[in-house]
Design a protein that fits this description.
Layout lengths: L12 H32 L7 H5 L9 E5 L7 H13 L3 E7 L18 E4 L6 E4 L3 H9 L11 E8 L6 H4 L1 H11 L4 E6 L9 H23 L7 E6 L9 E3 L8 E7 L16 H24 L22 E7 L11 H6 L3 E6 L6 H19 L1
Helix pairs in contact: 3-7, 4-6
């Protein structure tokens, strides 16, 4: 053993003591720097990085199937909130949510292409959730891509519950049906659910009743999907009547030709100032038209700027055109109900108006549509008979 003493050392005792303190302090600093450098290396190591899903998801119980919930009215809408809460309470599923930040009810099957979509985590007890600055189709597509959650294929996708019916030709405008259709295109069974909301008659608690009505059908679907008994290449559109608690029962229905009339009204700029349309849910058509024209103007400006370096163009959309001879008009789009000529009782809107829960099988495979719809009809009849 080596000892340090004043007698065997060529340095004065005070200097030795000082040197020992300095060396000890330096060693401590070196150790701290080494640990910090190691931490930095680990944090930049791709294998140690934390993904979006890792940061927001709790441990998944692999014994429970994954159910993805989306909608069209936005992540804070009561229909979505009540549905997610009920599914979590059931305790049968790993519930995940991916829904639009704002109302996209009439977005149809549109996607956000060429623009950045922002995603933020949302608060739902018992269900990892994200809100997306895009359409319902964006939400489903992103969720199924594997980039957002730690999985890429849930057992079932549920879109809803949305305010207002999605019967007949309204399915082509409907964002809630589009969310379910996108899942079907990606090979995942899906349900879309809407409540036949009527002004001055419906109330928010109707969404709770709609959830209670639909839960048995949701449970039957997940059970038979796992067993391989659910009809292939099929989505179910579920329409809940205005007074859910007074429903007459379930009815297997066909998609009708029902639609509202698209009514364009000319309006003055003074009556509807800038920004009015962006806050009115019923004016999505004019919003999209204006945004499309603005985008076209911006694209043209960029192309002109690229081709002619000495030319400067200000692109602020149609409203910013300096040509005083240009004619500018304002329009507002509204849906107007019209009389329906179809009278069959098994049509979706007829069953809905008669107080039934209308269940309509939908498909995206036209060449095998008859076989798919027959199989779907048989399953729905058996499922509803079993629940009732």
């Amino acid at each position: 053993m080596t000892s340090t003493s004043a007698k065997n050392n060529f340095f004065p005792p005070g200097l030795v003591s000082n040197l020992q303190q300095v060396l000890s302090k330096k060693n401590n600093e070196d150790n701290r720097e080494s640990d910090q450098a190691k931490d930095n290396v680990e944090s930049t190591d791709p294998s140690a990085s934390t993904s979006v899903s890792d940061a927001t998801e709790e441990a998944i119980d692999i014994s429970k199937p994954i159910v993805l919930v989306t909608n069209a009215e936005g992540i804070d809408s009561p229909g979505l909130v009540y549905l997610v809460e009920a599914l979590v309470r059931e305790g049968l599923y790993n519930v995940h949510v991916c829904a639009p930040q704002s109302d996209k009810s009439l977005s149809g099957h549109s996607v956000t292409l060429g623009e950045t979509v922002s995603v933020s985590s949302a608060e739902f007890d018992g269900a990892p959730a994200f809100e997306v600055s895009g359409t319902p189709v964006d939400c489903v597509s992103l969720a199924l891509s594997g980039a957002l959650f730690s999985w890429s294929k849930p057992l079932l996708v549920i879109s809803g519950i949305n305010r207002g019916p999605s019967c007949g030709h309204h399915m082509f405008y409907s964002g809630v049906v589009a969310g379910a259709r996108e899942a079907l295109i990606c090979g995942v069974p899906s349900l879309s659910i809407s409540l036949n909301w009527k002004k001055d008659e419906s109330q928010e608690t109707d969404f709770k009743e709609a959830v209670t009505i639909c839960l048995p059908l949701i449970n039957a679907a997940t059970r038979d999907i796992e067993k391989g008994l659910f009809p292939k290449s099929c989505s179910l559109n579920i329409e809940v009547p205005t007074s859910p608690s007074s429903k007459k029962g379930f009815k297997l229905t066909k998609q009708s030709m029902w639609r509202s009339t698209l009514n364009w009204q000319a309006v003055s700029a003074n009556r509807y100032p800038a920004g009015h349309f962006m806050s009115n849910q019923q004016s999505l058509g004019i919003q999209l038209a204006q945004l499309g024209r603005d985008a076209s103007a911006a694209g043209a400006a960029r192309r002109m700027t690229t081709q002619k370096k000495n030319v400067e163009i200000e692109s602020i959309g149609v409203a910013g055109k300096s040509d005083s001879n240009r004619v500018k008009k304002h329009f507002r789009l509204e849906f107007l109900d019209k009389d329906q000529e179809e009278t069959e009782d098994d049509l979706d809107f007829r069953a809905l108006e008669s107080g039934f829960v209308a269940v309509t099988p939908l498909t995206v495979s036209p060449h095998t549509e008859r076989d798919i719809l027959t199989a779907a009809s048989d399953w729905i009849s058996a499922a509803l008979h079993g629940e009732q």
